[in-house]
Amino acid sequence: MRLKRTAAVSVVCMVAGVLVPITALAAAPSASTIYVNNGSTSCSDTGTGTQAVPYCTVQAAAGAVQPGQTVQIEPGVYYGQVTLTTSGTSAEPIRFVGYTGIARSLDDSSAYSIGNQPDGGAAPAVGLEFEGASYVTVSGIRVNGGTTNTAAFVNASHDELASGFLNGSATVAVSVSGSSTDDTVDRDFVPEGQISVGPGTSGTVVSGNIMEADSAISAITASGATGTVVNGNSIVLGGPATLSQSGIVLTDGSTGSTVENNILTGLSQTFSGISVDSSSVSGTKLDYNIVFSNRASNPSPDLYSWAGTAYAAAAALDTATGQGAHDLNANPLISWGQFTPAEGSPAINSADASAPDEYSTDFFGGPRDNDPSDPDTGTGVGYDDRGAVEVQDPIGISVAPSEQWGADSLTDTFTVSQTTTPWSSTITYQYDFGDGSSTVTSGSTTATHTYTAPGTYTTTVTATDGANGQAVATTSVKVESGSAYYPISPLRVLDTRNGTGTNGVVAQIAPNHSIKLKIAGVGSVPSTGVTAVVLTLTATNDPGSGFVTAYPDGETVPNTSSLNYAKDVNVPNLVTVQLGADGTVDLFNGGASAKPIDLVADLEGYYAPGGGDGFLSAGPERLLDTRNGDGVPAGGSVDVSAPTDLDIPSSNISALVLNVTVTNTHGSGFVTAFPAGGTAPNASNVNYVAGQTVPDLVVVPVGSNGQVQLSNLGGSAGTIDIVVDLFGVYVNNWSGEEAFTPAAPVRLIDTRNGTGVPSAGPMWYQGQIYQPISDYPQVPATAENVVLNVTVTAPQASGVIYLATSGPSTSNLNFAPGQTISNGVYSGWVMDNVLGFNNDSNGSTQLVVDYYGYFS
Asked: What is the DSSP string of 141-189?
């Protein structure tokens, strides 16, 4: 009895948009490898076929190969016929191997293709010929038919043509002839071609192939070929009803043959599934096939022919001959291009598993699997499927992280969902987190893992159920260097007028003195791990003029300013400041004319490691200008939202970075920005008095509707106009997010003394400052955006400072003659990493720029 074969490596090709599997044989452990690669500029047919200097043609390798060697054929179009004349041995076979991966399209004529006609040259007679070359295996190759329209011609013994695309051009795809013995044609895809086993051959195996044709054809024929095994093939014949088509035909003394486990479907009116003539019936077995006519309106009356007698169905054949006792004539539920039986197919769990050359894996390399929804009606193990393709456990999964992005480190929870209903409810999950840590195996659909270093990680989950079905899903997680942002609804953390943030001590900040403000652990801010905070600072009750500098506690007072104030004017400004090691910041009241002041600080958010939000530069774009309408009355509000042209779903936007300018003021009051739909907090963003134009950068979380609300408040508030420009958004789980790295405050530009500019002197009216970021070593080359505080001092006329990235349709800082005023700025680069500012004014002004950190 012929022994059962087992398959090695499974690969897949694509044919007419359908995945077509390939099963490639593993190389012999002791074999050396020679290479063919006509795409290599160093290839040579006079060399020895090394990987560095491969052969240019397959024929050159065929002439040089010795027993025990493997010829590795790299992808490409190889011209001319390949004739194999050198034999291997049973102990040291010769192997020609093409593609051995998954999902390779051998339908693509440029992929591992031999037997091609060269431009301007003669077409070969056949694509591949085994001429006396025994113990040779060819796998993973597209073989094209030549002038005889025969892809492969076998005239040798113990050869195997496996896992290929055999393009016979509507005639003979493979011809086995002469005195060949024990040759195998298995797991090949054969479009429009016949597998022909000729007179004098014996022991040929045709197994596990997929064949389709819409021409007049007999798919598999054996003529005078004894001991032929035709097992587990899937044959789909289509085309016009008038075609003469047959599935499997044994003639002229093909005795002792086996025809089992095949699926044959046909559309022609004269479709004959299996035909065995009288000279071939001796010792021949026919059983466990499915033969079905797809032409329901006029089904073929002759699905079988045995010893010259036609039989319409398997039952009649069995009654008359004892053959086909387990054959079926029901619809196998496969079709052209779809060779996996659909659920409910009679092919499922009904094959003869003990049939000769019934492989332990199917055409796709999948295991024989027991579908619990169908009874086991086959023999042997009882659940092999008929045809070339085994129905696999339909287990399918997807996996999603709780956070796709994080900064510095990230604790993530991965949740697995079933996308199909598997055969077994008992499922184990193996989680590979992609960072070199140990895998985790459990029955839980969730797993939590902490990534401790920046990087992009692919998490792979493998689900295995009790029916041996297996599914794999992957997802990606990115951890950036730096910190993520956590927006909060504005929270007042300091008010020297009533002792908030000062342990109840009500006292102004004296000139040239600092107060220490604890941020870590306040409200929703974690007590540890916070790297920086975003504050709106407001100086009030100020009888003099000066500045406030925010800096990390424990550092010396830097030569920077965060807020510039003037006598009897409430002045706000947004500042991003690094925390000291103890979670505090220092606020210094400085300036030659400084007087004791009250200071108010409202917390807008904080930066820390983990899965918070990342920054994306957006705009600049004007979102609101009430000067085009009736303004905002006292107690009134307006809502703004991110523009839709950002192409970011509103559900992924957590906060907006806005420049809010209050102008045309009547009375004195303040504007508070907060999530729309909520209640205005005890906080302010822009404080104003009558006749004043005041800008302030605002970072404010969006409400559930994706909007922020701006309210005009205060006991003496009057009608005002509000202008809102967008400069960025904070997003969650969106591509391109940037993390923030805080820095100790440092001055980049001061035109008064020439710091950071070619020479000292003011910006001229309508003037510009464009400086390469490389001029500022404090800013790393990896920075994508920077956080700045920009101050105008001694302007000769009113005007606007706008970034080079903004354009004059938006503003960053509005100023009046003689005013010293500052505003926070998030800036990117222009013209290959150039930092630029424009003075849209009819007078000159001095400009000061301080740096607080960067996004990357």
From this structure: -EEE--TT-EEEEEESSS-EEES-EEE-TTSEEEEE-TT-BS-EEES-E
